[in-house]
């Protein structure tokens, strides 16, 4: 199809850096002349590029190249999980396994400023929960785990895992949002303290204690039993 050829050409220019974030694409008419296709073909191609998160169309501003953003991928993964038969327990087991596997790398690569940042996030998380600001708590919980991932100082690994990390963290949002104890704020701190000391065994034990505590919280069985609406509304993606 002609629209696929247009998509391929524009996608190539975006991926190889010929068109960078914020660059404006030629107008619809200009693209028709450059590529020798009709306006309907150009419009179909632009819609495809928008769906892939590569360009943004704004009324009065034309079409511009989007900055790299994994939120569309993360949200798509969330919806896939929400439609699966996975239980909350299975998601927590996966999250624990991932965190335990990353601990040795965090011990090796983490720096004092990483632990300082994580302590700061936990302080804000605790204050938010104590103030019963339930709309802000999920975002700070996610910020903690994303910052932990950044402490690996391995950009490629962070890029691969960040969308999945966000999905897994979404499963940890307690169904009883207004119950302070259900947020398990206190069980995060010992993990950071152990990492700061470089004590792998203590970090592993603190991680297991954290997940044991989380697993004992009252939860629904299947992830799909928690309405997609509830998950999306409680998650920071809904406010992007």
Largest sheet: 2 strands, antiparallel
- How far is the first residue's CA from the last residue's CA? 34 Å
Residue runs with pLDDT of under 50 for 5 or more positions: 236-240
Query: What is the number of domains?
Result: 2
Number of helices: 11
Query: Share of helix among residues?
Result: 55-70%
* The CATH architecture of the largest domain: Up-down Bundle
Structural class: mainly alpha
Give me the CATH fold name of the largest domain: Four Helix Bundle (Hemerythrin (Met), subunit A)
Number of strands: 2
How much β-strand is present in the residues?
Answer: under 5%
What is the C-alpha radius of gyration, as a whole number of Å? Answer: 22 Å
Could you give me the name of the CATH homologous superfamily of the largest domain?
Answer: GntR ligand-binding domain-like
Q: Would you tell me the overall average pLDDT?
A: 86
CATH class of the largest domain: Mainly Alpha
H/E series, N to C? HHHEEHHHHHHHH
